[in-house]
C-alpha cells in the first residue's frame, strides 16, 4: 500500500494542481457538490455568486456536482424554507478541480469545510481510501479498513483525524473490506459497517458523520459517483430509576443493560446496544424474567438515550429521553432539567435567580441549554410548582465543570423531594 501525506479539509492552494484533471469539463471552471451534515438543521440551498447551485439538500444527503467559473467566489448557505442565510464565505475554486463542500456544525452555529476531490487516480485493480471528519462533537478518530471485524490485534490504516481534517489517499488492493472507526489511540469502536466491496479504480472518502450522541458516529462513503450515508448499527443507552421503593433490572430486547438499580440512581456511563426498533422493559430484581413495564422505542443510529422508570410500583412506566451530548464551548456547561416527581404535575426551574424552564410536565425533560460559567461560582437549582413561588426542592452549592453536559433531576417522594445533578458527558 502507498501513503501520500496529509491534506487539511480546507481551501487547498495546491501543489496537486498538476494532478487535477480538466478532462470533460469547461475550461477555466470548477465543480462543486454539497453534503448536509448538520443534525437538526432543515434543508439547505447553496449559492455561488448568488446563483443557486444546490437546492433542498437535507441532512445525510448530497447534491450532484455543478459546474461554474473558477476563481474566488462568494458562497452562501441558506435555509430552503425561508431563505435565511446561515453561512457566507468567499472561497477559492481552482480551475479543473472538483470540491465537496460539507456543511457542518450545529443548527445555531453552521460552518463549511472544503474537500478537494479526484486529484489522485489509483492504478489498475487498486482503490484509493482516505478518512475525513465532519464530526465536531467527537474526538479524533482512527480508521480500521481490513478483511476482518476483529481489530484487537490490528493497526489502524489511518489514525488521528480530527474535525475539519482529512488524510491523504492510501492506495490498496481492490476487494471487500470492513470499515471501523474508533476513538483515536483506542479500540473503542464508534462505528462499524457490514463488509463492503470496493471496486478497482475507485476513489473512496470515508467521512465520520455527526449525530446528536456523544460517543458514536455515523459515516458517509463518498466516491466520484455520489455519496452513501451509512447509519451506525449501534446506539447507546443508560438508565434512571425514579420509582420509589424499587430495585430494578433494565433490558433492551431481553438483554440486560443494568441490574439491581435502586431508587434515584442514574447511570453515569452508557451501554452500547443495537439501534433501530427496540423493546425496552424493566423487571423487579427479585423477580427476574417478569416484566412490569414495556416500551417500544426506535433508537436512532449513533444516538444516546436515557431509559427512565417512572411513576409508582403499583403503576410503573417507562419513558425515554434523547440525550443531546454535544460538546459545549469551554466557557459553558450544557444543562437540561428532568421532572420525574409523580405528584408534581408541572414545575418551573430557576438557576440562581434565572428562570431556566417553565411548566415542565411530569415524565419529561427540557432540551439542553447553556449556562455561562463564572470563576469561583456555584449554582443553586430550585424547582417550584408551575406558575407559583411554592418551592418543591432546592439544591445549593453545585459546582459545574466547563465543557460538560448535565441533567438536573427532580425525584420524589412528596415528603422529601430530591434533586440530583448527574454529568452525562
Automatic annotation (TrEMBL):
It comes from the Bacteria. InterPro entries: DUF4397. The keyword Signal applies. PROSITE patterns: PROKAR_LIPOPROTEIN. Residues 30-144, 333-423 form the DUF4397 domain. Keywords: Signal. This is DUF4397 domain-containing protein. Residues 1-18 form the signal peptide.
Amino acid at each position: 500500500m502507498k501513503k501520500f501525506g496529509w491534506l487539511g479539509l480546507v481551501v487547498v492552494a495546491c501543489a496537486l494542481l498538476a494532478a487535477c484533471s480538466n478532462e470533460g469539463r469547461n475550461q477555466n471552471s470548477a465543480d462543486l457538490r454539497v453534503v448536509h451534515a448538520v443534525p437538526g438543521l432543515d434543508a439547505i440551498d447553496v449559492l455561488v455568486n448568488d446563483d443557486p447551485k444546490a437546492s433542498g439538500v437535507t441532512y445525510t444527503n448530497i447534491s450532484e456536482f455543478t459546474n461554474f467559473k473558477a476563481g474566488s467566489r462568494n458562497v452562501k448557505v441558506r435555509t430552503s424554507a425561508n431563505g435565511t442565510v446561515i453561512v457566507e464565505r468567499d472561497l477559492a475554486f481552482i480551475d479543473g478541480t472538483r470540491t465537496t463542500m460539507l456543511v457542518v456544525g450545529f443548527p445555531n452555529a453552521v460552518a463549511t469545510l472544503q474537500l478537494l476531490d479526484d486529484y489522485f487516480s489509483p492504478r489498475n485493480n487498486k482503490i484509493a481510501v482516505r478518512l475525513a471528519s465532519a464530526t465536531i462533537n467527537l474526538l479524533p478518530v482512527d480508521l480500521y479498513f481490513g478483511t476482518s471485524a476483529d481489530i484487537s490485534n490490528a493497526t489502524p490504516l489511518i489514525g488521528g483525524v480530527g474535525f475539519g481534517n482529512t488524510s491523504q489517499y492510501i492506495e490498496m488492493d481492490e476487494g471487500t473490506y470492513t470499515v471501523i472507526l474508533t476513538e483515536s489511540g483506542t479500540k473503542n469502536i464508534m462505528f462499524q459497517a457490514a463488509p463492503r466491496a470496493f471496486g478497482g479504480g475507485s476513489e473512496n472518502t470515508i467521512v465520520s458523520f455527526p449525530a446528536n450522541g456523544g460517543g458514536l458516529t455515523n459515516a458517509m462513503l463518498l466516491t466520484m459517483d455520489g455519496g452513501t450515508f451509512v447509519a451506525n448499527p449501534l446506539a447507546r443507552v443508560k438508565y434512571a430509576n425514579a420509582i420509589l421503593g424499587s430495585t430494578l433490572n433494565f433490558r433492551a430486547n431481553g438483554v440486560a443493560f443494568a441490574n439491581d438499580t435502586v431508587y434515584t440512581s442514574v447511570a453515569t456511563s452508557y451501554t452500547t446496544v443495537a439501534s433501530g426498533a427496540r423493546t425496552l422493559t424493566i423487571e423487579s430484581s427479585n423477580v427476574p424474567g417478569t416484566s412490569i413495564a414495556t416500551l417500544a422505542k426506535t433508537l436512532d443510529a449513533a444516538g444516546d438515550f436515557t431509559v427512565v422508570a417512572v411513576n409508582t410500583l403499583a403503576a410503573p412506566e417507562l419513558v425515554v429521553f434523547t440525550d443531546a451530548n454535544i460538546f459545549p464551548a469551554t466557557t459553558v456547561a450544557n444543562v437540561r432539567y428532568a421532572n420525574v416527581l409523580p405528584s408534581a404535575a408541572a414545575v418551573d426551574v430557576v438557576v440562581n435567580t434565572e428562570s431556566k424552564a417553565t411548566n415542565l410536565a411530569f415524565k419529561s425533560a427540557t432540551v439542553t441549554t447553556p449556562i455561562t460559567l463564572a470563576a469561583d461560582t456555584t449554582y443553586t437549582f430550585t424547582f417550584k410548582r408551575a406558575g407559583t413561588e411554592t418551592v418543591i426542592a432546592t439544591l445549593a452549592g453545585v459546582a459545574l465543570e466547563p465543557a460538560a453536559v448535565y441533567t438536573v433531576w427532580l425525584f420524589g417522594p412528596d415528603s422529601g423531594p430530591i434533586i440530583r445533578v448527574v454529568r452525562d458527558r
